[in-house]
Amino acid sequence: MRCAFDLDHYRELLDAAEAGGYRWARFDAEPKPGDLFLRHDVDLSLEAARTMARLERELGAHATYFMLTESVFYNLDSALGRDTIAELRDLGHAVGLHAVHPRAARDDRFDAVVAWHNPDPDYVHEPVSGMVNVMQAPWFTKGRYRSDSNQHWREGCPHDELRTGAFEWLQLLVHPEIWVYPGATMGETMRAMAATKHDELLGYLAGDRIDLA
Ligand SMILES: [Zn+2]
Ligand SMILES: [Zn+2]
Q: Would the pTM of this model clear 0.85, i.e. be above it?
């Protein structure tokens, strides 16, 4: 199997988890055998998050989407941002806060769960008042965590282990942008995303009655 960072292989990953007998877990209870915590940090693109969320719905998968409130790449208070949170909820997914340390101001858009964006080692595993920090024990446990950061699985793509049920339980961090936009490397994928955002930006300008002639 070719472990590409594309939606075909993402579908294979979710199928493997289903075949391995895993259940879609939320961060509202401590891990139990068979739990799969499917976590998405939405760092760059609301559109990619929506595409991934629809595919998961089609496959019967449930994830938790962590959203930034202070991103330079998207605005949750825009119509697109509000619609995205509403659609994620409609599709049956959970929504958590993707916070930039030390600020973790939760409001009623978010469940009581936080994931730090680009955390430093000195606070990443520390508890956060009033919320579950996804990287605190027991939700973060060595050997029960895989991440696709920068199109690189540090400990390998988990599709085989998911299929055979090799993990007692797992937290799987997937960044939607990496899978939704095409590219054999992170650089190619990010340039493809930037090209799409360029077109979207022209659309927003036209929608704002800017003369583009
Ligand atoms: Zn794979
Ligand atoms: Zn992040």
A: yes
